[in-house]
Amino acid sequence: MIQIVRGQVDSVSMPNKHSSTHSELLQVMNPIYVLLIVILLNIQANFADQVEFEPAQPMPSAPLDRQSTISRIAVGSCAQTNKDQTIFNTIRAQKPDIFLYIGDNVYAATEKDDPRLSSLKQAYHLLAQSEAFQQLRKQVPVLPTWDDHDFGLNDAGGDWPHKAQSEALFEYVWAIPEQAPSRLRKGIYHSQLIGEENTQVQIIVLDTRFFRTPLFLLPEPHIHGRYTPSTAPDQSLLGEDQWSWLAAQLTIPAQLRIIVSSIQFLAEGHHWESWRLLPQERSRLFALLRGKQVNNAIVVSGDRHLAALYKDEASLNFPLWELTTSSLNVPLSSFKTDIQLEPGPNRVGLPFYDANFAMIEIDWEQAKLELQIRNAQNEVVRQTQLLLKLPGMESH
């Protein structure tokens, strides 16, 4: 139909621009032709996107009100579309102000060198069909990022040859607005500043995939992972453009900063993916936080198919906490029977190995922050409470 209409427009005889008889008609009709052509091109572009990304489809969520104070933030990661989806109902029942979906939001059935990302598109299609997730995003704004599996390949980084296609697919399925700053650059990092004055929360969503240099393999297999810290002088996790962007973001006034990293930042006891494997980048983030005099910040992460709390008291002028929550429906206990406790010098308490999500509860009046790990039945299984340093308020 579009081809026929466009053909009709193209075939319309235009007045001779040298004819004085038709000069007034040309002035009247020209804007109409231009507007019609623009509309048709937009329709054609949208149709082309739909064809390119089929069977995936956009998954818009409830609009985010950036002017309203928020106090309940849900966090989740790592969900198989062919597994039980009811945990999304549990999350929705908590009536969170925002849901941070922080990576491995889908898993392709087959991960292979396919420029069309056919299996990944199918996985997104299945997520869009999930009734539980439909209801969640209908009621709650969703802020997503990716990890390796929704990037396209297990443990993939910046050398993944189809990362540009994956980024275009991500922006399509999560209905990222055309005018969004993240659309104008490589990678999917973005931020949101939410809330009224003196209760502003800045959510900084990092991209730990698009710019990452290759990881170093251990020479021998290890029970707790396959990698060893990189010694490469040019090692990268965020890339220079993202580092510059992050430095600018940390100058924006906010009463609480939530730094979203799909992989763990503080964990040191294992050899799976984490910031520890790129030690120069990890040190750089600590240095940046110190240099920008950041306080009232926490890190949230996923990836690990377990949940745990971590704390670093030595690197900054305040205790930095990390909340790891994973997985929504493929936890470690669902596919591993001989779970071995990994060392955890920065971990507070024991990991939780069953299905889980997290809640961040903010009490602005009492200047308190509660980090909670909850199981699929909404029972709190791990938690800690932090004090916020808010202007004009004494510590409680």
In short, what is this structure?
It is built from nine helices and 15 strands. By secondary structure, the protein is of the alpha/beta class.
Could you explain how this protein is built, in words?
This protein is α/β, with parallel strands linked by helices and 396 residues long. The chain folds into two domains: 2-45; 64-387, Alkaline phosphatase D (PhoD) (Purple Acid Phosphatase, chain A, domain 2), CATH 3.60.21.70. It is built from nine helices and 15 strands. The protein has helices spanning 2-11, 23-53, 87-93, 118-129, 131-139, 148-151, 163-173, 240-249, 279-291; strands at 72-76, 98-101, 142-144, 190-194, 201-205, 216-222, 225-228, 256-260, 297-301, 307-312, 320-324, 347-352, 356-363, 368-375, 380-387. A seven-stranded mixed beta sheet has the order 4-5-8-9-11-10-12, with no helix packed on it. A six-stranded mixed beta sheet has the order 3-2-1-13-14-15, with no helix packed on it. Strands 6-7 form a two-stranded antiparallel sheet. The longest helix is centred in the N-terminal third of the chain and has 31 residues, at 23-53. Mean pLDDT is 90; it is low at 1-23.
List the keywords:
396 residues; alpha/beta; Purple Acid Phosphatase, chain A, domain 2; seven-stranded mixed sheet; six-stranded mixed sheet; 15 strands
CATH class of the largest domain: Alpha Beta
The portion of residues assigned to helices is 25-40%
Our count of domains comes out at 2
First-residue to last-residue Cα separation? 67 Å
State the major sheet: 7 strands, mixed
